[in-house]
Amino acid sequence: MTAVEQRNQQENRISYYGWTVTAMSFLANVVGYGIVFAFSVFLKPLAAEFNWSRSLTTGAFSLYALLHNILAVFTGRLADKFGPRVTMIIAGLFIGFGTLLMMFIDSIWQLYLFYGIFIAVGISCNYVPSMSTVSRWFHQKRGLAIGITAGGLGAASVVFSPLSAWLITTYSWRIAYLILGVACWLIFIPVVLLIRAAPTTQFATETKAANTQLTGLSFAEARQTFTFWAYCLAWLFASFSEYAIMINIVPLVSDKGFSLVEASMVAAVISISSFIGRVMGGFLSDKFGRKQIFTVSLVIQMLTFALLFLSQQILMLVLFAALFGLSMGGWTGVAPAFSADYFGFRATGTILGFALLIASIGISTGPLVGSYFYDTMHSYDNMILICIMTTAIAIVFACLLKPVHK
């Protein structure tokens, strides 16, 4: 039996430590991104209390999205050099600290500092280290493992959006942030202590023998390929539409006459189906290929926006949420795996971090554009139409992806 076959056999066992790393990374993403995506629930209460426009309030999320993806380039390098545990402990400290400070805000600069900067630093130390670490632990089951890890982003709002809505309705948004901050420290930090780096030297040798597509390009070499830029731009345009909807979905639904709790439940349905989509996408990509699942998921996502445009009743909104979550989960669950599949293990964290940096342009501008349209036209219809167009562009770039050969 070859070394590669032995590794693949190990991956089929539940006792393989890579699955522990995957599970802990999943939980870390649930907590971290649960707090991040709960911003959609806090948006209207914050804007109403301080008489801020929605675009001004959403600007804090845009700053977070841009900054955490800029920092991801550096945290990816730190994870490549020193391992994931230290960076992810720092993540938990910053996310919890920023969330606790949110309860004290009384001016816009504090919102931008505590949410836009402190929480951004924390998330930047979590996502890339966890994804690149899980990628290195697997070969045969990499797509499934990445899908489960990314599923934490999908499962995040299942808990945190309804919980935040209930806390805001029952107590206040300040108390809600206090409870979320404490919960972050109590859950996140103990979880990441169980994460450790994969045996990279042995695995890199096995992988090179097993799959010539995993060429081990350096970051500089990867940048010179067309596939690298097609990958980054597909992620950028897909993220624009994804986050435009995700951050504005609660105010969008509540503006249609539904309660904050009902609107948060629509967000929760997106998260549940997104989790399913991420796991299914990862599993199916191991069988049918990353590019195929990535592209098909984007096509379905584009079609769901047409459904959202026409939805006026709660059942239609729930149907949209279920289909959008599945499609969004499908492509986001496999997107991080391209960095290892197409470029190898030599600079996985750095490549993934830079791809996220490019994607941050879409992540940061999507929600802001949506809120701007509401402030100027008192409607999200134009935002939805733009999301259809940006997803179509992402599909074009996805179709142009090709394996890299050194």
Text of the CATH class:
Mainly Alpha
Envelope shape: globular
Number of strands: 0
Low-confidence stretches: 202-215
Give the ordered list of helices and strands.
Answer: HHHHHHHHHHHHHHHHHH
Q: What value does the average pLDDT take?
A: 86
- Tell me the strand percentage band: under 5%
Q: The biggest beta sheet, please?
A: none
Query: Looking at CATH, which topology would you report?
Result: Growth Hormone, Chain: A
Structural class: mainly alpha
Quickly count the domains.
1
Rg over CA atoms, rounded to whole Å, is 20 Å
Taking the alpha carbons of the first and last residues, their distance comes to 28 Å
The CATH architecture category equals: Up-down Bundle
CATH superfamily: MFS general substrate transporter like domains
Would you write up a description of this structure?
With 406 residues, this protein is mainly alpha-helical. The protein has one domain: Growth Hormone, Chain: A (Up-down Bundle), CATH 1.20.1250.20. Helices cover 83% and strands 0% of the residues. It contains 18 helices and no strands. The protein has helices at 3-11, 17-37, 39-50, 54-82, 84-101, 108-124, 127-137, 142-170, 173-192, 200-210, 219-223, 226-254, 260-288, 290-310, 314-334, 338-343, 348-377, 381-399. α2 packs antiparallel against α7 (127-137), α8 (142-170) runs antiparallel to α13 (260-288) and α12 packs parallel to α17 (348-377). Mean pLDDT is 86; it is low at 202-215.
What labels would you give this structure?
mainly alpha, 83% helix, 406 residues, 0% strand, Growth Hormone, Chain: A, 18 helices, single chain
